[in-house]
Amino acid sequence: MVLCENVIYTKASAGQLCKAMVLRLVTNPLVVQFVRNAGFDVVWVEMEHSTYSITEASMLASAAMMAGMTPIVRVPYQCGMGYVQQVLDSGAMMVVFPHIVSAAEAKEAVKMCKFPPYGKRSLWLQQAAVGLRTMPMQMMADEVNSMASAVGVMIEAEESIINVDAIAAVDGVDVLIVGCIDLSSDMGIPGQIDAPKFKAALKAVSVACKRYNKVFGLAGNYKDLDFQDWVINTLGVRLILAHVDSNLISVGAMECAERIATIDRTVVHN
């Protein structure tokens, strides 16, 4: 009954890689068509590191559903249950919570996303994930709980690694996502993804995900193909944030300007 497949519960859980495009700058929902044309599975709507309003996030998430892609929304840190509920009511099929460092925090994240008896989310009858259809209350709650309210937690601190087994064991947590930038920074080795200490942390997340049958996700590395090969094919990453709209625009603009500069004979050199 949901508008589109939730690849976290289907493709990723079956062992296939899901590729996400991160949107944090572009607000026009037509950008989703470019993402679909490129062959992505997921539209990741970034609200922690953007100025998106809930309305703008809803438009992007709804466009993703209509295009047949799974919309995932990362909410701001400690935004509260009311904010999370609005994001879910308006189109997210998975909410990602930043900076989760304990099992207790992971349990609270699940409670925010699930209708009773699994959580404390308030029940509203028109849900974007089921196309705003009128449905029997219990049927709608069961459908959204099971297919359109996945929970992702960001593993971004050394303390998270210490507690990663307990976090992965939390019932209702579907995905553990390593944030490479924040985790390496918190470890005192910013950006050093090949450091033994950092690679050991990723291995610990991989082991925990496999032990509790959770999806392993990765964010924050968009260029190092060897590293991506290792995390996908050795560690078992099944959700990868492949790139960010603002990064693509920035890099593309610089490459274009540099390319034109190579044939520019109008510049006067003193």
UniProtKB/TrEMBL annotation:
GO cellular component term of the entry, any: cytoplasm
SUPFAM superfamilies linked: Phosphoenolpyruvate/pyruvate domain
GO terms, molecular function: aldehyde-lyase activity; metal ion binding
Pfam families per UniProt: HpcH_HpaI
UniProtKB keywords: Lyase, Metal-binding
Domain HpcH/HpaI aldolase/citrate lyase: 26-213
Family affiliation: Belongs to the HpcH/HpaI aldolase family.
Name by which UniProt lists this protein: HpcH/HpaI aldolase/citrate lyase domain-containing protein
Organism: Trichoderma guizhouense
